[in-house]
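Sorry, any thoughts here?
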Amino acid sequence: MDAARDAAADLTRPTWILAKRQTGARGRRSRAWAMPEGNFAASLVFRPQGPVDQIALRSFAAACALRAALIEVGTPPGALSLKWPNDVLLHGGKLAGILLESLGDGRGGVSHLVIGIGVNLATAPGAESVEPGAVPPVALGIGVSPEDFLHALAPAYAAREESLATYGFAPTRAEWLSHAARLGETLTARLPNEEITGVFKDIDEAGNLILTTSRGARSIAAGDIYF
């Protein structure tokens, strides 16, 4: 992601940057991200089209593209699910994560978007690398190289980016919800100042998580989800 940010100004088209080794990997909120050898770490950098408030919706497009790429390389479709806001699960364990970072254009807008994706292709980090109560990491373990996985992922994401540009968020939202983890079940959203427990009913047109609680529906824009 740092290399993508450094290169952004000189790029003339959407570009993927693949890291064979990472020494400063990070996840959401600057958390550490373990990257054992043989795993996948790549970033897509491009100039996003459309309103600024829709840029974050690319995390759902990326999750759907990740699922499609994993199926293409041989993963059983029924083994995969999508965890709000930005994880892909394999048999209920965390297989992949997505991180979005934007570069400002100096006028309150966004000049470039960087979508970072990490996938445990070969090895899962140890349990000590995750927080208590978090979804445990798992590995794909079917002998797919990072290069081969990128060849599956890049066109899968390009198709969903085109869909966003042409049809808006509705088709991506429908695709994501059709594979959502724990839809209709009770989960807990941990926010900076509170925890909200409720039934996962939907995501809205802005990508917010909708929970039905004892006090009614709650819309959550960002938070950590625990099952």
